Amino acid sequence: MKTFFIILLASLTLYAQDAFITAIKLDKILNDKNLVLVDTADLKTYNKGHIPHAHQVDISKFRHWVDNTYLLMNSPQEIQKVARSLGINKDSHIVLYGHNRGKELLKTSYIALALIVNGAKHISILNGGYADWDYEFEDMPEKFSTKKDKIKRGNFTTNFNPNVLVDLEYVKAHIGKVPMIEARPKAFYTGQRKSNGVRRLGHISEATSSFWRDKFNIDDSLKSKKEINEIYVDLNKLSPDKEVITYCTGGLEASMNWYILTQYLHYKDVKLYDASMKEWGNLDSTPMQK
Is pTM, for the whole model, over 0.70? Predict the structure, then answer.
């Protein structure tokens, strides 16, 4: 009986949710029937090499343009369609990874956001991305693939949470009442530089700066929980049990702050302004400061 409980405990530990999963732990569950591994790179990069059994998806499947100005998340019906096309079921463990190029990491957090908002319960991001997988298994060719696995259509059904994504009017109404954090680099926040596609300089009035990249090491691995808590609590004055709104240039950078706060640190009420500065910063009526 004692042996049974030891095995059970080990199993629970192995399959427990990790907001950021290591390459070593992912390798241990690579053949699990509930695992859906998603590569967020472009098709050309994916075809050159990827983790075995990974399915490629483009972030454009999750977003759409509004007035050729900013992007918003697709409808629950569209998210359900793409989730099923990836073989995602209601009980799937979805692991997302990018190929560590530019803002590739942000594609994983935005797709995670889109799936979680629509009811997905078990999602992880590969800590350190494909580069870490390559580092851990560089001398093991069987750990890499150029094949595209046949996908069995999933049965995922969306259950949209209306309490995460907020619009311009909501943000306007909560300035000074709810902490807001900006995920862009500090130079954009202060107005020293202009974001691409954003006409006005500066940030939403009373928001604080919390550049998404500050939570990661140079190799794209997540910093320690202590370091991250110091950023959010000491610098941004956030509280795990109080509401916070995150935004950026156009949704991607903010999605990483959202993901870390909700999935890694378990903050209870984090909202995301998806249109972000590509809407706010191109209007004359929105309060801004430098």
Answer: yes
